Amino acid sequence: MEEKLLIVDDQFGIRVLLKEVFEKDGYETYDASNGVQALSIIEEHNPDLVLLDMKIPGMDGLEILREIRKKELTTNVIMMTAYGELEMINEAKKLGAIAHFAKPFDIDEVRNKIRDFFQSIQ
Prior knowledge:
Blueprint: E1 4-8, H1 12-24, E2 28-32, H2 35-45, E3 49-53, H3 61-70, E4 76-81, H4 86-94, E5 99-102, H5 107-120
Parallel strand pairs: 1-2, 1-3, 3-4, 4-5
């Protein structure tokens, strides 16, 4: 079974880059530009992992993560942020985010983190 990954970011270029990289790595990859799309994809496709940007207009990453937990979905989440706000990162961890990384990011570090995650759940 192919591992499923959802990328949630309002920046088109980041979504395209990550989607291309992870599809080449063999993951079934979805992307969303906002919280409503993300929650719909999560409910429909039940991805194994969500890469979730912290700052998204409308419904930010913490609100999306709260909705995931409120719906009692077991989706694993890694937060992405260009903002080094320790308080928000700590809140995300309290809500069950398994990790985070800062933007701009090193794509190889992100790939390694994703690969390590999927190896840990096999």
